[in-house]
């Protein structure tokens, strides 16, 4: 007969012993990392598609408001399937509406740039305009003289007319 085994008690002050990480756990951590970034990419791509679809829905003036509501309800309850169906069914019109909006924005920007970058008038033109205002009685003689001095000096900070 053997003597009873002695129980070993661990003191609370003993530090826990950790095993060195194995190669398997390192690979699992790596693939968890890759998986996290993949699903983050998929989620962000889905959000971009979702906002693109919602923007297109409200940009389309030909679609009835009830159909817009139906699309939004389906986007809430069946998001991936609805987004896929929307892109297949309305993708061409979506691209056309996006192109039209981009062209309109470009035309507005070009118009604004042309209006702001117009060639400045010459001092003779400024004096002629001021003389027309003086002749019509819109401005007084001292105001005309101040505008004439400003035009001849070529400085926008020259004396301004006072009322």
From TrEMBL:
| Keyword Transmembrane helix attached | yes
Q: Where is the Cardiolipin synthase N-terminal domain?
A: 45-90
- Keywords assigned by UniProt, alphabetized: Cell membrane, Membrane, Transmembrane, Transmembrane helix
Report the principal subcellular site: membrane
> Which parts of the chain span the membrane according to its record?
33-54, 66-89
Q: Name where it's found.
A: Cell membrane
| A Pfam family hit | PLDc_N
Annotated membrane topology: Multi-pass membrane protein
Q: Can you say what this protein is called?
A: Cardiolipin synthase N-terminal domain-containing protein
Instruction: State the organism of origin.
Output: Leifsonia tongyongensis
